[in-house]
Amino acid sequence: MCNGSSRAGRYVILFALLSAVYHSNLRPVASGDSLPASLIPFSVILDKSISLDRFGPYITEHVWYGSKVILNKRGHWYSRYPIAGPLLATPLYLPLAFIPGIDKQPPGTLISIARVGEKIAAVFLASAAAMALLLLLRRVTSDWAAWMLTLLFAFGTANWSTSSQALWPHTFGQLAIIGCLCAVDRWSAGDPRVSPYWIAGAFAACAVAIRPTNVTLLPALALALFLRPARPMYYVRVFVPVILATAPVLVYNLAVFRSASGQYPVKLGEHLWDGLLGVLISPGRGLLVYTPIVIFALAAFAPHVRALREQHWLLVIVATMFLVSHIVLISLWPFWWGGYCWGPRLLTEAVVPFMILLAVGWQVIASNGWKWAFAGTALYCCFVQALGVYCYPKGRWDSLPVSVNDDPSRLWDWADNPLVRTAQGGVVWEPYAIVAAAAKGGLPAAAKKLKELEINPF
Predict the structure, then answer these.
(1) Where are the domains of the chain?
(2) In angstroms, rounded to a whole number, what is the distance separating the alpha carbons of residues 419 and 413?
């Protein structure tokens, strides 16, 4: 009983620590892309609708990028991005229903509140993802190693600079992927119950509905079932939830966008090699530049850890195949750099399988020959993520001297890259000044400071 209470206490402390650090920049590192996601829970709770009719006219009139993130269809306004994630996160917003008069507030005020709520929800989900990953890693490696890798995931990867800062699809997707892989590991353990198959299918369904690129998880699951080998009913248990979740998404996409893929491109790029090099080693978005710790995942395939690899062989297969196929898919994506963002944002979901492989190979990594290199690389990764949290978008690399979307060749400029430019730009200090003003003079003083600093909350 005491051991259980002690363990629960450590989890509570970890969740509180993550939440505090994730909130410490006092702002969402948001994007226009995440604006609709921040508003959908408000529409569901206040208007009982998935459309953004309350906000659409105001956004198109006052927000310069409004037409790029919402769409007017037959007199109703809809998000141009998948809505499954915001819908699943709506229960976090239920306290809104108990705020007197909130439904009478003007759209501009509600949008400002939504941006604050977006950060709170993102922090909760990113912290929950780290907690869920810890539970999974403790099944694979030692307790100490699981905690160290969880902290690395929390502060040395995009879980900090991306998932915890705004309601990107990745923020929802990581948690779903972890849940799916937790269930898959029970397949390796020979769990005789049918529930791990249903659970894997349910989380996979959520992952695909949240972000279509997570479809790369499905062939990985199919391969694992084939190699197990599994009976036909196991396939049913895994893939029926995916079909049930995909059907309403397809109906919604066809009704709103007249395309089964929604606003996502149907045709992929034709230059795999260019995209692959870009997402891996470019100074603008390269995974091995922003999160080089992932290279140590190769230790999972070393001879020394063969026994552990065989013990969790289905988990390793699914993690590896999902990882490789996801990187290939993003490499073929027309905008593989992910627009305006920090680092390789579109590979955020790939971080989870990387952490699993790090856990499998931990015995090799922790050996005398590699542990100091690993520790130094981990510290570098944390520094890079901190730049994204506390300094980005200072330096305005994404937009100056010309938009990276208009001139993607800038992603290969080693002399002028986001890391150096953002570090030179310094800390985004304005949120601290606004909070200090609020502490002295309340919300009116904060609003005045916001106006003085010419900060657009949208």
Answers:
(1) 23-114
(2) 11
Highest mean pLDDT among 20-34, 266-280, 383-397: 383-397
Q: Give the sign of the dihedral formed by CA 256, CA 261, CA 264, CA 270.
A: negative
- How far apart, in whole angstroms, are the C-alpha atoms of residue 385 and residue 363? 26
pTM of the model: 0.95
Nearest to 131 by CA among 217, 12, 23: 12
Residue 190 has pLDDT above 80, yes or no: no
Cβ neighbours, 10 Å, residue 444: 10
Answer whether 361's CB lies under 8 Å from 298's CB.
Answer: yes
Report the alpha-carbon distance of residue 391 to residue 43 in Å, rounded: 32
Residue 216 zone, left/alpha/beta (φ > 0; ψ -120 to 50; rest): alpha
The conformation of residue 113, written as its DSSP 8-state character, comes to H
Span 273-321, pLDDT tens digits: 999 999 999 999 999 999 999 999 999 999 999 999 999 999 999 999 9
SS3 content of the chain, % helix, strand, coil (to 5): 70, 0, 25
Please check the confidence at residue 2 and state whether its pLDDT lies above 60. no
Q: What angle do CA 27, 32, 35 make, to 5 degrees?
A: 75
β-strands 70-73, 76-79 pairing: antiparallel
- The one-letter amino acid code at 386 reads A
- In angstroms, the CA 18 to CA 6 distance is 18
In whole angstroms, what is the distance from residue 55 CA to residue 35 CA?
A: 11
Give the CA dihedral 39, 41, 47, 50, nearest 10 degrees: 80
Q: What are residue 79's DSSP bridge partners?
A: 70
Lowest mean pLDDT among 35-49, 219-233, 439-453: 439-453
